[in-house]
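Entry, Tuesday afternoon. Goal for today is a structural model of the target with pyridoxal-5'-phosphate bound, before we commit to ordering more compound. Inputs were pasted exactly as handed over by J.K., no edits. I checked the ligand SMILES twice against the vendor sheet because last time a stereocentre got dropped in transcription.
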Amino acid sequence: MRPFKLERYFAAIEFKAEYVLCASDCEGLTMAELLDMASSGSRSLWRGLKLGYTESPGHAGLRSEIAGLYERVSPEGIVVAAPEEAIFVAMHSLLEPGDHVIALTPTYQSLTEIARSKGCRVSAWRLEPGPRGWRLDFDRLKRLANRRTRMVVINFPNNPTGAVLSPAELEAVVDFARERGLILFSDEMYRLLEWDPAARRPAVCDLYEKGISLSGLSKAFALPGLRIGWLAAQDTALAGRWLAMKDYTTICSSAPSEILAIIALQNLERILRRNRGILRRNLTLAERFFGARRRLFDWIAPRAGSVAFPRWRGSGSVDRLCRGVLDRKGVMLIPGRMFDVRDGHFRIGLGRKNFGKAMARFGEYLSA
Ligand SMILES: Cc1ncc(COP(=O)(O)O)c(C=O)c1O
């Protein structure tokens, strides 16, 4: 497998930078904040928890909370795993060498790299910036398909652009997959982070009998340290295949994390309200910041999620910009090449409480 560019970049800088202005998660909840939300039932689950191995598919109570997020998925159609692990497990259990995969680009690298490393051919279906936001070419999707195509991979709300499909576009992707009998793997890690409810789309696992939704607590729930995510599908036979692979990754998830995840899901609306509030405030700051510097940046507003992908139009490369802001102001940005995008884009994260201070430092760098 080729190195995971984005994760290596984070590993080198994240814990040294004063301001991480490019994080994709929302401001992490503290242990005390989460435990304060616990009902008396989940509090006693927490206190009485034995730190033994747990059920491989995930705690039954957790899977039933997760199934409650969907219309057509039962707890038997769910396997709990760390989100990154879930991508690994799904790709390894569903794909064979020689298969062809069509994957939305740009996106999180493992959504393409794991299939590629397994000997699959991966074709990029590219999101392009346009005057009214990020656009996809549906004729191109049709042209990319061939008789070996087995899977289509999408990721909306998208990391890094914040793009969302329209209802008609989502229907078109589902129809495309259904007509050809393809698996539709939908990374929905940023779903539920729609500050405008009109941007919320149904989960692919509810829309399509061969659809798989990946979700988890890392982004929308502000709990990446729990390492809890899941795969969800209507077809319960898939869970058996995922579990056969999970035996070679973690076998089962962390016992304390599962109980904390139950508490989070039982308090979903409260946690989402907090996170969407942070995002809304930061989005207003971002719009003001980039709006006042139109000669230096193209600002393509995200529709949902916790990241955006503006474009640098000033002098020098975007890599030089990112390096300069880090070296002189201690502010971390991510250049687009970490997503294989090389035309000046960079990622910012909208989920942190110190966003305003970090943007002020960024502004100082630009005016120096
Ligand atoms: C689109 C997407 N999918 C999956 C993941 C993996 O999530 P985790 O880091 O919690 O394993 C990320 C993390 O950034 C992501 O952005």
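The chain has two domains: 5-30+269-367, 40-267.
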